Amino acid sequence: MNSRLLAYLAKLSFSLLVLPPLLLSCSGPQEPKQTLKPKDNPPALINFVASEYSSQTRPLLENLVQEFMLKNPDIVINLQVANWDILDIIYTTMISKNQPPDLLNTNVYTHFANDGLLNDMDDIISPELKKKFYPDLLKLDNWNGKQYAIPYVSSTRKLYYNKALFHEAGIASPPQTWSQLKEDARKIKNTGKARGFGVDLTDNEIQAYLSYFFIGAGGGWIKDGKWTINSPQNVEGLSFLRDLYIEGLTDSDPTVTTRDEKQRVLGDGKLGMMISGNYFNLVVPREFPDLEYDKGPIPVKDGVKPINFGVQDTIVSFKTDHTNKEALSKFLDYLYSSPVYEQIIQQEGFLPVTELTGERLGSANEEMKADLAALRTASYYPIQQPEWQAVMDTARKMGDAVLHDHVSPKQALDQLQQFAEEEQAELKKHQRP
Description:
The protein is α/β, with parallel strands linked by helices. It has 19 helices and twelve strands.
């Protein structure tokens, strides 16, 4: 329990035990009996579970929470920062015990909303805060006409590459098509010094790499509310990834080493290129200050138009037995205020989700300005589908199946398509109004 809350309870217990005798001893016989009332109201409690993006996340959030509580002594925030590897386990355990967090920083929300677990953020956030957000990002967090989430951070995805390895392999510029990607990966492999292309099919990022190569083939996850997972384009995209692996053009462990680990391998000169987000610009140079790197677009199938892929993480508020909407509103106003929110963006390397912060930081950073413009036309995960979490969970088994268990890309995607359709139909039966 938070130390401030403990202090309050101790103070209250002492008052109830000690003060009544003192009051009685000072009272004359003609005075009416006095009833003791606690002087203070208990502080509002906010349990906040946040995602750990880097080594900077925990100290950054701890500091801003402490600063907020110093300015707002009537609000106690219990902060828990969790790595993405265990985040799902933490909040699902809390929910199963009927003790969900008041605030959760995550990347999904509609399955919670479908189960009736979330507060409508329009009942919490101030009108001033709502006006700050980019409208297109805010729209992604609106489901069935209610604002069940608000944007927290965003990113665009690009191909990052080791310039020294490219130079040694005789590659003049980053690949923009699949045929160029395959050719350049082979050139890097042939140097004998590094692997060509990093592919992340782990539990953390398989949905990302599937998205890059689904959309890069002209396909996608969903169209007009119907799942299109086993479309010919998507099958072609997954087949291309599998072929890269079979030909030895990827890293050796696509289903084992995570994106963060692959970034270190690239920084160490053992991997030529990989797809990652804006945070690469901060996270990798911190550990490898001598690394010379650059970036290019996500490669697409020859003849397909270039793509922009964006990701946004959100904040949701669960209904609890102590929900204090005024306290939540005050904290969220603080979280997105200047310079607090700017500090989060700059230290974590993300793109801002508020327009004023985007204008301010983008005016001093041409790359961020261009990325923010690209984000306005980007494709995203289908986070407005309540079954998306379940689809992701099922997709996590697909990497090993396709690469190692001799399941064809078509078979794997047919199975995932069937699961998504069945899950969608089942959830619609129980959808809350």
